[in-house]
Amino acid sequence: xxxxxxxxxxxxxxxxxxxxxxxxxxxxxxxxxxxxxxxxxxxxxxxxxxxxxxxxxxxxxxxxxxxxxxxxxxxxxxxxxxxxxxxxxxxxxxxxxxxxxxxxxxxxxxxxxxxxxxxxxxxxxxxxxxxxxxxxxxxx
Length: 140
What we know:
- This protein is mainly alpha-helical.
- 41% of the residues lie in helices and 9% in strands.
- It starts with a helix and ends in a 34-residue tail after the last helix.
């Protein structure tokens, strides 16, 4: 391919990409879904609802909270992991988000989701987890 033809093709591709980018709606152009993978009234729900409300005001768009409990949070977490990566589905996760895929592997089950399917965007709270055993147990 001669140099002029190649330059013309590259210019056409660039112009097409620019037009496509201009045709996209500004984010967010539709409501956002925040999945809380636990029943209403729990920690994730009581933290998630005010966050969703504040996000909605800041983004000038509705943020709908959907409680999707079950399997220790795995059902809701898997739903978000399998959602389109378009920024319109988010997860209010607890620390169990890192435990469930590993527990599935240890128990020889197909993982409901993998951590690499999710991308953290903000730390909302800190909830330290403590494992306690009896003083005379073999675990220290």
